[in-house]
Automatic annotation (TrEMBL):
This is Uncharacterized protein. It comes from the Bacteria.
């Protein structure tokens, strides 16, 4: 009988899920993907309690679950950039992604999500992704919300959040301050919750980090990253082949899809530290807000433009684009007025960033000093 391996993933607030598999590749992947920002540790499968993501390579089970879905009238959606067909009855939700060779079955009464596929890497990536979704549901149930922001902390937990629309410079702020000595808590999304003492607590959202070739070059990371790729080290498998080819060839110009979306190198969370030298944080408390806006050709400067937290800065189950709640893991909640008010009361600063990373860094350090 094949041994079952298990990795238990726990947030700094105590929410947890266990990933089990006959393959250590799958459980190790969960530890790598989630463990840099949450705690992930091997455990005995026999001792597992609470929700479980059980993931294995099993083409026969994929075929069986596919038969269940296609025998009915499945709904169709896009999940993690692949088409998904899914059906729900009183006991479970069953789903398949034919193009990815993956199948799923969620049994809420058992709190067990089964994931099977024909490719080990695809199964491992799906298991880590859905383990995060299980924990997301627990966090939202416990009063946490998701803010579209990057975050950096000091060793004492003092945290700066950077907010704005896509392309405003949230990720740039996080990386520049991270390289200037702050600890990176998140590069795109964070969990936030208003506490009874009037503070706003922050937890990270573990994910692969997408860094454009232009930003990679501007941060002086392009050369070291390319050297690692040339020696055979791998970035996250969701990275488009055109990006890998560009790194291999030494091309630094940004790459674009026909849709206008930029294609970017995709880093595992641990590679932010091992490849890029950033220190990662596991929690913090909000102390100030930055509202950047990158303007090509502009001189970096503080701005008096008014900017406030809005409903569009929050994610919810109804606004999620990449990971719709197919399995019913998430409670239907909206932004908390208490949380929004506590965030709005924090010191905040709008700023204009250009393409001079040294000047941008000095401005960010100045803004951080003034806010705190």
């Amino acid at each position: 009988m094949t041994d079952i391996h298990a990795t238990r993933v726990t947030t700094a607030d105590g929410q947890a899920v266990t990933v089990t598999s006959r393959s250590t590749t799958i459980t190790d992947w969960a530890a790598r993907y989630l463990g840099s920002w949450w705690n992930a540790a091997a455990t005995e499968a026999a001792d597992v309690t609470g929700p479980v993501v059980a993931a294995d390579v099993d083409p026969g089970e994929v075929a069986a679950l596919t038969g269940i879905v296609t025998a009915g009238q499945p709904q169709e959606t896009e999940y993690a950039n692949h088409r998904m067909l899914h059906t729900t009855d009183q006991a479970s939700t069953t789903a398949v992604q034919p193009d990815a060779g993956l199948a799923y079955r969620w049994e809420p009464a058992e709190r067990r999500l089964r994931i099977v596929g024909s490719d080990e890497t695809a199964v491992a990536a799906a298991a880590a992704r859905l383990a995060r979704e299980v924990i997301r549901g627990q966090l939202l149930t416990d009063g946490w919300e998701i803010l579209h922001a990057s975050a950096v902390t000091r060793p004492d937990g003092t945290t700066l959040l950077s907010l704005g629309d896509k392309g405003a410079g949230k990720t740039t702020c996080g990386f520049l301050l991270g390289r200037a000595g702050w600890h990176l808590l998140a590069n795109d999304r964070v969990f936030v919750r208003a506490e009874n003492d009037g503070t706003v607590r922050i937890l990270p959202w573990p994910s692969a980090a997408a860094i454009g070739l232009g930003l990679l070059d501007a941060m002086n990371w392009y050369g070291p990253v390319r050297e690692r790729v040339l020696t055979g080290e791998k970035l996250h498998p969701t990275q488009h082949q055109r990006v890998t080819d560009a790194l291999m060839a030494g091309d630094r110009e940004p790459l674009w899809k026909r849709s206008g979306k930029e294609l970017k190198p995709q880093f595992f969370p641990d590679q932010l530290h091992t490849w890029l030298g950033l220190t990662l944080a596991t929690e913090g408390r909000a102390a100030g807000l930055l509202f950047p806006q990158i303007t090509p050709g502009a001189e970096p400067a503080l701005s008096n433009e008014p900017r406030a937290i809005g409903e569009g800065d929050f994610f919810s189950a109804s606004t999620e684009d990449r990971y719709p709640d197919v399995f019913g893991l998430l409670p239907m909640t909206g932004p908390s007025t208490t949380l929004a008010a506590q965030l709005a009361a924090l010191p905040h600063q709008a700023l204009v960033l250009g393409h001079d990373t040294a000047a941008n860094t000095e401005l960010l350090k100045k803004a951080a000093t003034q806010l705190l």
